[in-house]
Design goal:
With about 190 residues, this protein is α/β, with parallel strands linked by helices. Helices cover about 20% and strands about 30% of the residues. It has a 7-stranded mixed sheet with strand order 1-2-3-4-5-6-7. The longest helix has 17 residues, at about 50-65.
């Protein structure tokens, strides 16, 4: 679905991502890579398939849209480095034609050298393109005419049925000057 944000045409993708065609840039909310391994190490059951599904979606996005740049809006890796980082290394190396940029989030705690080893550019707080400001968490103040595009919040909508069943689905959320991407993570 194509929309316009602060004068910039963007595409909302069903894979929970945003694409700025005019600069061939893919924007992704919280991936939380390594989450499955993090929970399993703590003795909490977590499906292994979720990590491979995330990489399948990522690779499909890369092949279909062939971005020159990919912005991760924070929370790229869930916590400390674990073996799932190797999958991310392989993903980045197999997509070496794109530049990867991480706008740090509260879960991005890996050492600077880990990111640098993949030539992943790390932005501490925010990055701007035209009237769009990309950050992990919402900015406290946004200049009039600009829109803050963020991750962090993981928006969703709930659909309730007659038999007390419900379904929570991820969604894009826009209010005033803040546009929230759903988490890419499954």
């Amino acid at each position: 679905m194509e929309i316009e944000l602060a004068g910039t045409p963007v595409v909302l993708l069903p894979q929970r991502a945003l694409l700025i065609k005019e600069i061939a840039t893919l924007i992704l909310g919280d991936l939380h890579l390594g989450k499955a391994m993090h929970f399993r190490k703590a003795g909490i059951s977590f499906p292994q398939a979720s990590a491979s599904k995330d990489y399948t979606v990522l690779q499909q996005l890369m092949e279909i849209h062939q971005p020159k740049e990919v912005y991760f809006l924070g929370d790229l890796f869930h916590s400390s480095q674990n073996t799932e980082w190797l999958q991310f290394e392989n993903f980045v190396k197999s997509n070496s034609n794109a530049k990867f940029v991480l706008i740090k989030g509260n879960h991005d705690i890996l050492k600077k050298e880990v990111y640098e080893s993949l030539q992943l550019e790390v932005i501490p707080q925010q990055l701007a393109y035209k009237n769009l400001i990309f950050s992990h968490e919402p900015l406290k103040e946004i200049t009039e005419g600009k829109i803050n595009i963020i991750g962090h919040i993981h928006p969703g909508c709930v659909i309730r049925g007659l038999g007390k069943q419900y379904l929570r689905l991820p969604c894009f959320y826009f209010k005033q000057q803040t546009f929230v991407l759903p988490a890419l993570a499954s």
